[in-house]
Amino acid sequence: PNEIGPGVYDIHSPNVPSVEWIEALLKKAAKRIPAERLWVNPDCGLKTRGWPETRAALANMVQAAQNLRLG
Question: Is 48's pLDDT higher than 90?
């Protein structure tokens, strides 16, 4: 309970967020919310994006989360 998933990928933008961009957003959120309560997710469903950009964005989200977990 009491977990939150700040949207780190604007699905209405054609830009794929970089790993560094996502990490910066997660670090900002972690200043207020304990990291163990944070979930990494896009801001909404991905139906407005094509597969190539969706895969790239999700891969960057995974990499950013892994980087932060490793400290």
Answer: no
Answering whether pTM is above 0.70, one says: yes
* Greatest C-alpha distance within the chain: 33
Do the Cβ atoms of 43 and 10 come closer than 8 Å?
Answer: yes
Name the token pair of 27: 């670090």
Write the CA distances from 38 to 20, 21, 59, integer angstroms: 17, 16, 18
Give the residue numbers annotated as catalytic, written as ranges.
Answer: 12
Q: Could you tell me the pLDDT band of residue 7, with boundaries at 50, 70 and 90?
A: confident
- Taking the C-alpha atoms of residue 61 and residue 13, their distance in angstroms, rounded to an integer, is 16
